[in-house]
Amino acid sequence: MKGKASSTGSEFELLRLDMLARQFSGIVQGCGQVVFAAEDDEARLSHASWRTEGDLFERASETGFKQYLMELIDCFIQYRAQIGQAKQKNGVVRIGRGSLVVEWLSNDDLLEVEGT
């Protein structure tokens, strides 16, 4: 079970994703993604959309995984804003094969992912 960050991710993100994947090893065996965004005027999570297979969303909600992941994404957004990362407000967390992978997106890329 490994957390993974895209090439624009950080060791901080990688470590935190790995810790969450280990804590919820049964959840990360499922398949899904969480598309997220922050408002332009503040570095805080403002929107998240879950797309999952089977009962993953229900299990994520019941076990507390959903809440922890949302808090972690919010933390990542704030951290990336503090260190001046170019892509800091939009992204997708992919859940599956025992891992969590975050990919940071531009506004245009976010629209494309939300459309699929």
Description:
With 116 residues, the chain is an alpha+beta fold. The chain has one domain. 41% of the residues lie in helices and 28% in strands. The chain contains 4 helices and 5 strands; from the N terminus they run βαββααββα. It has helices at 11-23, 56-63, 65-82, 107-115; strands at residues 3-5, 32-38, 45-52, 90-96, 99-105. It has a 5-stranded mixed sheet with strand order 1-5-4-2-3. β4 and β5 form a beta hairpin. α1 (11-23) runs antiparallel to α3 (65-82). The mean pLDDT is 89.
SSE layout and pairings?
Layout: E1 3-5, H1 11-23, E2 32-38, E3 45-52, H2 56-63, H3 65-82, E4 90-96, E5 99-105, H4 107-115
Parallel strand pairs: 1-5
Antiparallel strand pairs: 2-3, 2-4, 4-5
Helix pairs in contact: 1-3
Count the domains: 1
What is the overall number of helices? 4
Oligomer: single chain
- Average pLDDT works out at 89
Low-confidence stretches: none
What fraction, in percent, of the residue positions are helical? Answer: 40-55%
Largest sheet report: 5 strands, mixed
Provide the β-strand percentage band. 25-35%
Q: Quick one: how many beta strands?
A: 5
Distance separating the two termini: 27 Å
From the spread of the alpha carbons, the general shape counts as globular
| SSE order | EHEEHHEEH
Q: Please identify the structural class as seen in this structure.
A: alpha+beta
Across the major sheet, the strand order is 1-5-4-2-3
Q: Which radius of gyration do the C-alpha atoms yield? A: 13 Å
